[in-house]
Write a structure and sequence with these properties.
heterodimer, A: mainly alpha, cAMP-dependent Protein Kinase, Chain A, Recoverin, domain 1, 2 domains, 3% strand, B: 468 residues, Rossmann fold, 13 strands, elongated
């Protein structure tokens, strides 16, 4: 990153979270594979803009049933809770980079389904809200 | 997440979708626009950019031409598809006309349909001004001709005042008598000295201009009939620059036995790091593996019957959906053999991005295969005429494949030629290659098609208008 112009460009991208935005948009495109990619992108961006203004949920690939499914895989014996290590791995796999390191129940290494859902949702919200506040 | 037993498989639909809609280029375009303009509200900016750009499925192309004189009819025909062209401007200060151009080019129709600039820039300073203003052409075409030809052309130039068409006394004759009668001669100041001085000025600046645009420059000889020049320019403009997108080509080689599919597949796979898949070998490997599918296949292979399509397809799709095939690309040969297999391949969503038909006559095929043999010790393949074995000892132990015998070969060739025309119909975009050429020539031909991007498709109406 030698020249000042390059640094400016890099700073700009960081500040507005452009790499995450492009990453999310591309994942959406590949998942839904719409016939008209540009119109689809316009729709997603409009939704994102609305969510920024009115703090509604931004578009995201995962929904509640996905989170339940993930928890179910991790907890096949239906104990109702998972270990802390599993919780960390699960959130990383979902693509959430910054999550709460100390959720409820971390002390006794038993993270319940509700806590997991709550943390996952918050993390997903943050990663899909790709705009600077 | 616990390590699951199922390895990561990227569905092939994603690869075909990405190729078809050129997602990489779209994203690249968005990112470059963002970093150039750095808007405060990127989301709004991106929405605007996407709305303005050409609707899905169309493309826009931009190029400038440098030519001295004359601006003939063919370039006007080109304009039916493109936006417009500027003619040579007088001495106006650089900033002013650059601003004018920028304004005109930022209008939506230029954005969507593309533009042609003719005759500018004339000097390096003008080119740099254009660059600074953000006007970047995709192709730059330089039309060259010896000075004598240019002078002759400008002297003989005649203009039809009614339609504005340009004719020439010797080269481009007008069609009818009445057009001929109203042609006006060149304007008074276009005399030989003027032309010569213009040419000198041009030669002084052209070298630096070439340097400015050296990445996308193409020189075309303008000393030809204008239709030829036009077709050359058009084919060049339709070709596209190398994209930085992930290059995972999916190549399909179809041809009669002996056409060199195996050899070409091996060469391509080695050079471009693709996965070489020979269908027959795949089946044999599967049957040796003792999996459930392998057990089913074994009796067919042992008795010499053709393995049923659904089993073949299962083994094939298994192999093709592995991660290395998705990321590196693949070369497939000796499948499909007939149209039903091709249809099933298409239904499984593994669409090849390049299909090649290796064509040859029966005699050459017979000659190549009948004399083929293998050395069982080293595994080397020899041919009695084209690649004879090195020594007597090797010669003594060579074996022939039973299916290479003349009788069987005739049957195989007949089967191939029965299904070949239908396969041609099924893959209309395939490239036909003459398989009788030496292997390295064939390889170069295949290479050029695999590596280069597919040329743009001109809309049908545009083509018809341009050809007339």
């Amino acid at each position: 990153m030698a020249t000042p112009r390059e640094r400016e460009a890099a700073d700009y991208l960081e500040e507005h979270k452009i790499p995450e935005l492009v990453h999310n948009l591309t994942s959406m495109l590949f998942f839904h594979r719409p016939e008209r990619p540009k119109e689809f992108l316009i729709a997603q961006l409009e939704q994102l803009r609305v969510s920024k203004l009115h703090s509604v949920e931004s578009p995201c690939l995962f929904n509640d049933s996905n989170l339940d499914a993930v928890f179910g895989i991790l907890d096949p014996a239906r104990q109702g809770h998972i270990t802390f290590a599993q919780y960390k791995e699960a959130l990383t796999t979902l693509g959430i980079k910054s999550y709460n390191e100390f959720p409820d129940g971390a002390a006794c290494d038993k993270i319940s389904r509700e806590t997991f859902n709550k943390e996952a949702k918050e993390g997903l919200l943050k990663s899909s809200a790709t705009f600077s506040i | 997440m616990d390590e699951t037993a199922k390895p990561l498989r990227i569905p092939p639909e994603m690869a075909t979708y990405a190729d078809k809609h050129e997602i990489f280029d779209l994203m690249q375009f968005l990112m470059t626009s963002l970093t150039t303009d750095k808007p405060d509200d990127p989301i709004q900016y991106l929405i605007g950019l996407l709305k303005e750009s050409s609707p899905d499925g169309n493309f826009s192309m931009n190029y400038t031409e440098n030519q001295l004189k004359p601006l003939d009819k063919s370039s006007r025909d080109r304009n039916l598809n493109f936006m417009f062209c500027f003619c040579i401007l007088q001495d106006i200060p650089c900033e002013l006309w650059v601003k004018l151009i920028r304004q005109r080019l930022s209008k939506t129709d230029c954005f969507q349909r593309g533009w042609v600039l003719a005759g500018i820039p004339r000097t390096r300073e003008e080119a740099l001004c254009l660059q600074e203003a953000g006007v970047i052409p995709e192709h730059v075409v330089m039309l060259e001709a010896p000075d004598a030809v240019l002078i002759e052309r400008s002297l003989g130039k005649r203009i039809d005042p009614v339609t504005g068409d340009i004719y020439h006394v010797t080269f481009i004759q007008p069609d009818s008598q009445e057009v001929e009668s109203r042609l006006t001669g060149p304007e008074i100041h276009v005399m030989e000295e003027h032309t010569v001085s213009e040419l000198l000025k041009y030669h002084r600046s052209v070298f630096l201009l070439q340097r400015t645009y050296q990445n996308c420059l193409k020189k075309i000889n303008a000393d030809q009939p204008d239709v030829d020049v036009f077709t050359q320019v058009l084919t060049h403009v339709m070709s596209r620059h190398h994209s930085a997108a992930l290059h995972a080509p999916r190549v399909l080689l179809i041809g009669p036995p002996g056409s060199g599919k195996g050899q070409q597949a091996r060469l391509i796979a080695e050079k471009y790091d693709l996965v070489n898949i020979h269908c027959g070998e795949l089946l044999r490997a599967a049957s040796a593996d003792e999996t459930s599918v392998g057990e089913l296949i074994k009796p067919y292979l042992e008795s010499g019957l053709q393995v049923p399509d659904n089993l073949v397809l299962q083994v094939l799709t298994d192999r093709l959906s592995k991660l290395d095939c998705t990321t590196r690309g693949w070369v497939l040969h000796s499948f499909p053999r007939d149209v039903e297999q091709a249809q099933k391949l298409r239904a499984s969503n593994f669409i090849p991005s390049r299909v090649f038909f290796l064509e040859m006559t029966a005699d050459v095929a017979m000659e190549r295969i009948a004399l083929r043999s293998v050395d069982p010790v080293t595994g080397e393949r020899y041919h009695s005429v084209y690649k004879p074995p090195p020594s007597e000892r090797v010669q003594a132990r060579l074996r022939h494949k039973p299916k290479d015998s003349e009788g069987q070969l005739r049957i195989r060739l007949k089967d191939y030629w029965k299904s070949a025309p239908l396969l041609h119909e099924f893959y209309p975009d395939a490239v036909n290659v003459n398989a009788e050429l030496p292997p390295h020539s064939i390889f170069e031909l295949l290479e050029s098609h695999v590596v280069r991007r597919l040329p743009r498709r001109l809309s049908v109406s545009g083509m018809i208008q341009n050809m007339s």
